[in-house]
Design brief:
By secondary structure, the chain is low in regular secondary structure. The chain has no helices and no strands.
């Protein structure tokens, strides 16, 4: 599926859309590769924008979910593949690297939207899964070091809770894991 080539202006766009409806659920769009058996890999799906070789901005990739008037907005789910007898798939989200001597690397932001006048803003959970025969996963939050010149400083890490105008401000709770096993030691908090 290709759009027309252009040499002196913009190339053609490609649109994939199911039609709107007022009497039911609008049609879905499925992009999927086939399954594979034995020791072969299943196919991949690549979605990307073209590179920019001049002084302009490379194309963005925007994935948006439908809004709702009185119901619930659409769900966006991003999951790595599971395995019945091996490692599960990973998910990597990263900002782009900066180039040259003054290029900044791209930022990564995870933000829940503001709530209505009487609502509660969205919860954000950062957690690892449980483990039954080994260690559960760790969570690492840190800033990068300054590795080349002596002019910069290491990045800071800020942890803050929300302010309250006529109510109490939010709490910050640091707690280490407990244990019930004989001869074992509970986790520690080191600051």
């Amino acid at each position: 599926l290709w759009s027309g080539l252009a040499t002196a202006s913009g190339s053609g766009a490609i649109a994939m859309q199911s039609p709107a409806t007022s009497a039911g659920t609008s049609g879905g769009i499925i992009m999927s590769t086939g399954s594979s058996s034995n020791s072969h890999d299943s196919g991949s799906i690549y979605i990307g924008t073209g590179a920019q070789s001049g002084s302009g901005t490379a194309g963005g990739l925007i994935m948006g979910i439908g809004n709702s008037n009185t119901g619930t907005g659409g769900l966006f789910s991003l999951n790595g593949g599971s395995s019945s007898d091996g490692d599960g798939g990973s998910i990597y989200i990263g900002g782009g690297a900066g180039g040259g001597s003054i290029g900044n690397s791209g930022s990564v932001a995870f933000v829940s939207a503001n709530a209505g006048s009487a609502g509660i803003s969205g919860l954000m959970v950062l957690s690892t899964g449980t483990a039954s025969g080994g260690n559960s996963g760790a969570i690492m939050i840190g800033s990068g070091p300054v590795t080349v010149n002596d002019k910069g400083r290491g990045g800071s890490v800020y942890v803050s809770s929300g302010d309250g105008t006529k109510t109490s401000g939010g709490e910050i709770v640091l707690s280490a894991g407990s244990t019930t096993g004989s001869g074992t030691t509970a986790g520690r908090v080191q600051i």
